[in-house]
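It is worth pausing here to work through a concrete case rather than discussing structure prediction in the abstract. The textbook approach is simple: state the sequence, then state the predicted structure, then interpret. We follow exactly that order.
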Amino acid sequence: MRKWIMGFVAAAMLTSSTGCLVPIYSADPARRAQQLIYTSEDLRSFLDEWERIWFLDQPSHMKPYRTSGLVL
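Step two, the predicted structure:
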């Protein structure tokens, strides 16, 4: 009988959760919106940070055509 009760409790806990047992975001809608904005901004700025680390954000000095360097 104890196995059945423990199995039922475990099944109820597993089917009632939609992800983790501890939610990552707050239940308050205003605070949850703020947390989601912070999270999305972090992921959005990741590409800029990656380019800055690898020096890919520097301006290109290469021209699409050759110049002689003379001032006209």
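Step three, interpretation. Residues 29-53 form the longest helix (25 residues). Residues 17 and 23 are 9 Å apart (CA to CA).
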